């Protein structure tokens, strides 16, 4: 079934003309992403970006595809570009923070989640993830405070509370 769907999508993408819109390439890329064709998705996200160099969502989603391929540095470049285009685009801070976790850049993680929290003060997962990085940086007071805030906002932060707040 997946092969048939892939064939249909491939044929559809061949029909995308030189005049295709950035959105059409984004849609094609999303389909490839969900079929686990990350390299094909990256090609189409890149085509969308060539048409619209300020396409925030294309940069972010290309970053997700790169991250899936364990190209964390490449993903961070794309998330950073999305943030440069729209400094209030909170999902890019979240995604960049997660990529920085993979690179064990806990200082960078704290910075990204701090910005995400500035944009959305009720973002429970941002408090939790920032708390974990603070824990790894040895800031137990900060980790405990973030864990308690995450818990207050509905995230299950009990493990971090047990480790950081004792």
Give a structural overview.
About 75% of the residues lie in helices and about 0% in strands. It is built from ten helices and no strands. The N and C termini lie far apart (about 55 Å).
- Computed over alpha carbons, the radius of gyration is 19 Å
The helix fraction, in percent, is: over 70%
Poorly predicted runs? 14-18
In N-to-C order, the SSE pattern is: HHHHHHHHHH
Biggest sheet descriptor: none
Coarse shape: elongated
Please give the number of β-strands.
0
The helix tally amounts to 10
Brief rundown of the structure:
The chain has 166 residues and is mostly helical.
Task: Present the secondary structure layout.
Blueprint: H1 2-14, H2 22-34, H3 38-51, H4 56-68, H5 72-85, H6 90-102, H7 106-119, H8 124-136, H9 140-152, H10 158-164
Main features:
mainly alpha; 10 helices; elongated; about 170 residues
């Amino acid at each position: 079934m997946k092969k048939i769907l892939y064939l249909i999508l491939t044929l559809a993408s061949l029909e995308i003309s030189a005049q295709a819109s950035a959105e059409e390439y984004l849609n094609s890329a999303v389909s490839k992403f969900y079929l686990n064709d990350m390299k094909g998705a990256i090609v189409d996200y890149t085509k969308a970006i060539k048409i619209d160099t300020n396409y925030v969502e294309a940069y972010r989603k290309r970053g997700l595809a790169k991250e899936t391929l364990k190209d964390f540095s490449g993903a961070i470049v794309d998330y950073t570009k999305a943030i440069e285009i729209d400094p209030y685009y909170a999902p890019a801070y979240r995604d960049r923070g997660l990529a920085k976790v993979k690179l064990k850049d806990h200082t960078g993680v704290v910075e990204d989640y701090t910005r995400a929290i500035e944009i959305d003060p009720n973002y429970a997962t941002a408090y939790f993830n920032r708390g974990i990085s603070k824990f790894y940086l040895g800031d137990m007071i900060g980790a405990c405070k973030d864990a308690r805030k995450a818990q207050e906002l509905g995230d299950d932060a009990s493990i971090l509370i047990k480790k950081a707040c004792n």
